[in-house]
Amino acid sequence: MTNWVLKKFDELTPHELYAILQLRNEVFVVEQNCVFQDADDKDQHCWHYMGWGDGYLAAYIRIVPSGVVYDYPSIGRVVSSPKGRGTGIGKELMTNGIKLTYQLFGEGPIKIGAQLYLKKFYESLGFKQAGEIYDEDGIDHIYMIRQ
Q1: DSSP string for the chain
Q2: How far apart are CA 112 and CA 133, in angstroms?
Q3: Using one digit for the tens of pLDDT, what is the confidence trace for 74-91?
Q4: I need a labelling partner for 100 at 20 to 30 A (CA). Which of 26, 48, 90, 94 fits?
Q5: Count of domains forming the chain
Q6: Domain of residue 12, residue span
Q7: Left (φ > 0), alpha (ψ -120 to 50) or beta: where does 88 sit?
Q8: What is the structure's pLDDT at 95?
Q9: The whole model's pTM is what?
């Protein structure tokens, strides 16, 4: 059973923030072998949606208001723990994240910068490609929009 929690940046406890940064680093930096500046001064403006498993952060996204990254609200830093993969937690995370984005900012377009290999996953959630493939930190990405 996953315990889902949504908080603004200033509401995060030090332990929650540490778990978020630890998971993002575990997957984006170590697992994907990608050196990049994760602390990008955007987290402070975002909502943070965490899925807690049995004593660990199993899944996470940040929900970004329009104007911080794109002209539309966005969902970013989508990550699931290697311990929780294959359970459907990624789909649950994004389905919930889409609903929360609409609750927070109204029913309008949501824009994401997706890793190319996840294109079909995001298409299954209603996102459509909205641009050419681009390189971000050595990984192919595409912009996608859900109307």
Answers
A1: --EEEEEEGGG--HHHHHHHHHHHIIIIIIITT-------S-GGGSEEEEEE-SSSEEEEEEEE-TTTSSSS-EEEEEEE-GGGTTTTHHHHHHHHHHHHHHHHH-SS-EEEEEEGGGHHHHHTTT-EE-S--EEETTEEEEEEEE-
A2: 13
A3: 999 999 999 988 899 999
A4: 26
A5: 1
A6: 3-146
A7: left
A8: 97
A9: 0.93
